[in-house]
Automatic annotation (TrEMBL):
PROSITE patterns: KH_TYPE_1. Residues 166-239, 248-322, 337-414 form the K Homology domain. GO terms for molecular function: RNA binding. Pfam families: KH_1. Keywords: Repeat, RNA-binding. SMART domains: KH. InterPro entries: KH_dom, KH_dom_type_1, KH_dom_type_1_sf. It comes from the Eukaryota. This is K Homology domain-containing protein.
Length: 419
């Protein structure tokens, strides 16, 4: 089922072609045919489930989503060739809606064809009925086409959902072939982003609406200000990865909760128009309508324009939808930009400042809300005025937490000197 803009009428519901085969019939070649189908035919998604236990063993279900019946049948042919390479006799289970009379399915599947059909018992937790078709593969294809065409005007079955991801995160849709360039060799880009901005970055499979099987989702989580700081770097990297892969489409795709669509658009489109204007007239399109909002957890937002306008639009959308964490009141109003300073500490006191298992320095960091680390060894060239060895101590945080941390450190050193 294709996503449509809000200005168009809702898409016509389409029932996916759902087939099942014994797990024993699956091998690496069968799984690889999935990628060939998605690239070759007009198929939005092809999902292969994990094992499902049925009365006569373990089965794998294949869901094929497309508006084109021909694309589904062409996909079926490739799947059958992979599972039954000899192209002789075979058997396939096809799913149909519960609201369809099973006797109608029997008539359709065997009409003028050399096949036998058996209605299978219900499977716990599976909403559709299943029919087993046995016969020549060419006849099975024709039977499946008849059954599936009969099902197309019925209410669609819910397809697999996107894996659980953090709701208050920044989410970007990226083509599968761009992922390796995005993360970098040895995941260098992700590691640098984590270290510099204190955010978590992960890439998850995008199976399930509104994504395609050939897409992944970049999930960016952390404190509001840290995520916001990272968005421009992520957008730059995604657009660069699209260029490296040779993709013709340079559209930035953001994933938002469907429940946030109205909040993003605003009354008469006021909010989204304001974001577009502030982002250098970026073209922002929400791929949603009233029906998909009801049935899908997430919705894709497309952003076109210059790199700068894409960056700015992505930041503004994140600001509108995720207001950020509440700040804890403090005695002073510190500068929130993180800084780092160093303090020279007599080497002879470092071990006691750190304490057993780091308990002393951890206590200081907890009180001051800052980070403290010590140089591993003193530098030979550096000495105090009394000729003592010196070790560098690094203190990082905002201005308030740094001043608090240094004060506590000096107090501890003063106590150690008086002993």
């Amino acid at each position: 089922m294709r996503s449509r803009s809000r200005s168009r009428s809702p898409p016509i519901p389409q029932f996916p072609l759902i087939l099942s085969f014994p797990t024993s019939k699956f091998n690496e070649e069968t799984s690889n045919v999935k990628h060939e189908i998605v690239k070759k035919f007009d198929v939005d998604r092809l999902h292969i489930s994990d094992e499902v236990t049925m009365t006569d063993g373990a089965f794998r279900f294949i869901y094929i989503y497309s508006d084109s019946l021909r694309a589904k049948i062409d996909s079926l042919r490739l799947i059958l060739e992979a599972i039954y390479p000899e192209r002789g006799q075979g058997e396939v289970n096809i799913s149909f809606q519960n609201l369809i009379d099973p006797s109608s399915i029997v008539k359709l599947a065997s009409r003028g064809l050399n096949t036998t059909i058996q209605i299978l018992p219900d499977v716990k937790g599976f909403p559709e009925r299943q029919a087993k078709i046995i016969g020549k593969l060419s006849d099975i294809e024709k039977s499946i086409k008849e059954i599936h065409a009969f099902s197309l005007d019925k209410k669609p079955s819910p397809e697999p959902k996107i894996p659980g991801i953090e709701k208050n995160s920044a989410k970007f849709v990226i083509a599968e072939e761009c992922v390796s360039d995005f993360v970098g060799r040895g995941e260098v880009f992700i590691r640098r982003l984590k270290a510099d901005n204190e955010v978590e970055v992960k890439v998850v499979n995008g199976q399930g609406l509104p994504c395609k099987d050939t897409e992944n989702i970049v999930v960016l989580t952390g404190k509001h200000r840290h995520v916001k700081k990272s968005i421009k770097q992520v957008v730059t990297k995604i657009i660069g990865s699209l260029g490296t892969s040779g993709a013709l489409e340079q559209t930035l795709k953001i994933l938002i909760l469907s429940t946030h669509v109205k909040e993003l658009i605003g009354p008469q489109g006021s909010i989204i128009k304001d974001i577009s204007k502030k982002a250098g007239n970026a073209k922002i399109k929400v791929l949603s309508d009233s029906e998909t909002e009801k049935n899908q957890e997430f919705t894709i937002v497309n952003i076109d324009g210059s790199l700068e306008s894409k960056q700015e639009a992505a930041c503004k959308i994140y600001e509108v939808l995720y207001k950020g964490e509440k700040l804890i009141p403090r005695p002073y109003t510190p500068d929130d930009d993180e800084m780092k300073i160093f303090v020279s500490v007599p080497d002879q006191y470092v071990a006691r400042l750190i304490g057993k298992n780091g308990e002393n320095v951890k206590a200081i960091m907890s009180k001051a809300k800052c980070k403290i680390s010590f140089q591993k060894a003193p530098i030979a060239e550096l000495r105090s005025s009394e000729g003592e060895k010196i070790r560098m101590c690094f203190v990082s945080g905002n201005s308030y937490s740094i001043s608090r941390g240094v004060k506590l450190l000096l107090e501890q050193i003063s106590k150690l000197e008086s002993i």
